[in-house]
Amino acid sequence: MRWWDIEAVLALERELFPDDAWSRGMFWSELAHARGPGATRHYVVAREDDRIVGYAGLAVSGTASDDGSDAPVADVQTIAVARDHWGTGLGSRLLTDLLRAATSFECGEVLLECRIDNVRAQKLYERFGFETIGVRRGYYQPGNVDALVMRLTDPSAPTTP
Ligand SMILES: CC(C)(COP(=O)(O)OP(=O)(O)OC[C@H]1O[C@@H](n2cnc3c(N)ncnc32)[C@H](O)[C@@H]1OP(=O)(O)O)[C@@H](O)C(=O)NCCC(=O)NCCS
Prior knowledge:
Layout: H1 6-16, H2 24-32, E1 41-48, E2 51-61, E3 73-81, H3 90-104, E4 109-115, H4 119-127, E5 131-140, E6 145-152
Parallel strand pairs: 3-4
Antiparallel strand pairs: 1-2, 2-3, 4-6, 5-6
Residues 16, 79-81, 85-92, 114, 118, 120-121, 123-124 line the site of coenzyme A.
């Protein structure tokens, strides 16, 4: 994803996350950290012809402490597929790309939050080996919807989505 993709991404974002869409500024800020030697973000778009039909992003931060490892931790910041492409495997391809990026950042684990009512996304993550490790009460506002916190412990391990 580059800055010139942001308008098309924003249109999809508003359609797919009507309650809590990211702002233009949030995408600009993420992309500002996505290039160069100190990059901590990886953002990707999927195109069909000239149309953007999906996008995803990963952030790398801190270090895992509970297992004593110094490896950085990756967070899935966002993943979305245009509705008319759902069920075609595109979500799986985007997630595969993020996990490859997590591996090249040498992350020991990948975390994400997912709305508790977003069963479709949870199934996608579970197919890749993510497990639920906690619940954040009222994480999504408005609506006071809980988030599941999910974790994949070895992003470099082969997956069978
Ligand atoms: C969640 C989301 C990214 C999933 O994307 P997707 O492209 O539908 O995901 P996939 O196609 O890889 O997987 C969905 C289904 O298609 C099936 N599928 C995978 N590859 C396939 C293929 N090549 N052909 C046909 N079906 C396939 C999968 O088995 C899966 O079925 P299941 O749900 O019964 O297990 C998408 O629904 C979305 O953008 N939702 C709105 C935004 C959102 O909620 N994002 C997540 C926030 S936590």
